[in-house]
Amino acid sequence: xxxxxxxxxxETNPFGVIPVFQLKSESExxxxxxxxxxxxxxxxxxxxxxxxxxxxxxxxxxxVDPGSIKNSPNLWAWFPSxxxxxxxxxxGQFEATGLSNYSVEMDNIANRMFIITRTPKHYLMMTxxxxxxxxxxAMESPLIKKTKKRQKLFASQWQDVAAFIAxxxxxxxxxxxxxxxWERPESVQPYTEAQTxxxxxxxxxxLITLLRREGWTESExxxxxxxxxxxxxxxxTLAQATLATLRTQQEQQNPQEEDAVTGE
Length: 264
Hints:
With about 260 residues, this protein is mostly helical. About 55% of the residues lie in helices and about 5% in strands. The chain has three domains: about 30-75 and about 85-115; about 150-215, no CATH class; about 220-264.
């Protein structure tokens, strides 16, 4: 292990800044380390108990030398009843003990870990089926809130990273003008999302405002508006074509009716 260093050379930093960026936040693991230790202890105890308590254990008390008793499957053992004095011969059985008490307590500790870390239970454990979209949103709400908090915390560092990369390309950009785009942290529930959006529109909130709240960028909103214009134009063209077809059919039918009247 070196105890001293010798300077060999020095170089000028061409970047003007130290290219080190720290993405730091409070540890989520430290909060539940002791609980995880408890789960590990219970699991180890359960494995030990499975060797001794998950099958019946038969016992015998008497004056026979234990070394002379053979024990194997389908083998009968004969024990003398005793000499009539002191402890007489007796046999019995310790019933098998289940391991559910260990698993139940491990589940209880796991639930506490979910609460502390704000992790939805259905991420790691089986839950009831047919959970509604509203229920999923409520279950994920604490984790989503924590995730968005982390996004705000890390955004400034990612802005510095992006500005530094631009500087390497010869472009100077103010980090505060850079926008960090994140994927939506919540689970997407199309049906529930559409219902919520429709309720917002019905109450008078502009659709564009709702889309911005959902995380749509301005370019995505502009693309949606352009698509809407093309759709309206296509529908208008289709309506005009349908109307022209009906008029043509009517014009073709009218001469036949006039000829029929003249013939009469």
